[in-house]
């Protein structure tokens, strides 16, 4: 999975950190999201998807990467 952040939209609510602390953190200066793992392990997919869904600014986009052979994992 790939994670993309629109920092212009991020409002620093911290919901992403609560949903997936292994993947997201907040910048100490302004509270905006910091991605700790741009390509997190598959076992974190559910929590990352929930973080994106619950983001009040819709600043997080998650895309699944195709597995070898073109199958989306």
From TrEMBL:
Listed transmembrane segments: none
Alphabetically ordered keywords of this record: 3Fe-4S, Electron transport, Iron, Iron-sulfur, Metal-binding, Transport
One Pfam family per UniProt: Fer4_13
Cofactors, names only: [3Fe-4S] cluster
Functional note: Ferredoxins are iron-sulfur proteins that transfer electrons in a wide variety of metabolic reactions.
Name of this chain's protein: Ferredoxin
Organism: Saccharothrix yanglingensis
């Amino acid at each position: 999975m790939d994670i993309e952040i629109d920092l212009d939209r991020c409002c620093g609510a911290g919901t992403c950190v609560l949903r997936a602390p292994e993947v997201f953190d907040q910048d100490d200066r302004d509270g905006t999201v910091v991605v700790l793992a741009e390509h997190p392990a598959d076992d974190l997919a559910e929590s990352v998807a929930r973080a994106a869904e619950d983001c009040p600014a819709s600043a997080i986009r998650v895309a699944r990467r195709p597995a070898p052979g073109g199958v989306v994992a």
